[in-house]
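Practice problem 4.
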């Protein structure tokens, strides 16, 4: 998936390291085989290249991630969209990005936008089947990484481990406590400084515009693209961090709130009782703003 993973754990039962590593890699391999657009034979690639009208049976994991994306797409008015693949490529990101980057023309942007729309998907959550309407390219990168964290956590619990911190590409899920009895802590950007946040049996994901950026002709843009406009977000948000019991949802919601922006995103988070920390930049520097849910989570930990 173009990133790294790390795990810290307490292992009082002395489960062999080789067994732990094998379980982690097996969990990650499942996600890659189903949802990596970088793999020519992955399930998502086969769907993206399938002819119009073809019906596809999805693996349980793929269906779960897609259902999550569609849930938050509907709730947010399309601030996240599993069909965003053509726009990701157009703006120079993802597995199908052009080798030489240039600003997209209005006609290219219009053509890509015509292929976007989560409403196009005929997805049956009960039978885990989906129809390719023609030209749709799924991209679940804004959710699958968080899901992979949850999968690794489940694999560790299956081995009997009850205290660990799993990290994939900066997204984190914790269970239990450190061997010292102290809570697991992660470093989170909060305005002009970073702070350590204690986590207990929960996950955290961050989305922001300081990572994965392009610059062409003195114009700079991040990888976070608004599916509703077809263009990278251009507001004052620097980052959004979300705490949620499941990293898949934390990952999806961090994207949703980043796309919605500092005002609409904060209102959405408050309305849905999401634990979120917003960091935005203005003439006075970086300022942070936390939802009620965030303050309750941090206080509880």
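Answer key:
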């Amino acid at each position: 998936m173009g990133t790294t993973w790390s795990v810290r754990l307490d292992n009082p039962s002395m489960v062999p390291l080789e067994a732990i590593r094998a379980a982690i890699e097996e969990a990650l391999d499942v996600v890659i085989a189903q949802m990596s657009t970088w793999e020519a034979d992955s399930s998502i690639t086969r769907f993206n290249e399938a002819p119009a009208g073809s019906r596809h049976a999805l693996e349980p994991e793929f269906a779960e991630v897609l259902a999550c994306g569609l849930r938050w797409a509907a709730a947010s008015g399309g601030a996240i969209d599993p069909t965003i693949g053509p726009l990701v490529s157009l703006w120079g990101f993802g597995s199908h990005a052009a080798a030489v980057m240039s600003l997209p023309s209005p006609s290219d942007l219009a053509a890509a936008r015509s292929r976007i729309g989560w409403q196009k998907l005929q997805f049956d959550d009960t039978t885990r089947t989906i129809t390719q309407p023609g030209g749709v390219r799924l991209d679940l990168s804004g959710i699958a990484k968080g899901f992979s964290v949850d999968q690794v956590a489940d694999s560790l619990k299956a081995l009997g481990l009850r205290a660990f911190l799993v990290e994939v590409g900066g997204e984190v899920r914790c269970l239990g406590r450190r061997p010292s009895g102290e809570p697991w802590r992660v470093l989170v950007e909060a305005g002009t400084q970073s702070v350590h946040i204690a986590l207990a049996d929960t996950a955290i994901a961050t989305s922001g515009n300081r990572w994965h950026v392009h610059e062409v002709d003195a114009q700079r843009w991040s990888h976070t693209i608004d599916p509703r406009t077809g263009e990278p977000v251009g507001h004052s948000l620097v980052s959004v961090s979300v705490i949620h019991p499941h990293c898949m949802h934390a990952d999806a919601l961090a994207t949703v709130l980043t796309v919605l922006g500092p005002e609409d995103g904060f209102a959405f988070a408050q309305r849905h009782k999401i634990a979120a920390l917003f960091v935005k930049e203005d003439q006075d520097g970086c300022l942070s703003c936390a939802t009620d849910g965030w303050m309750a989570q941090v206080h509880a930990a």
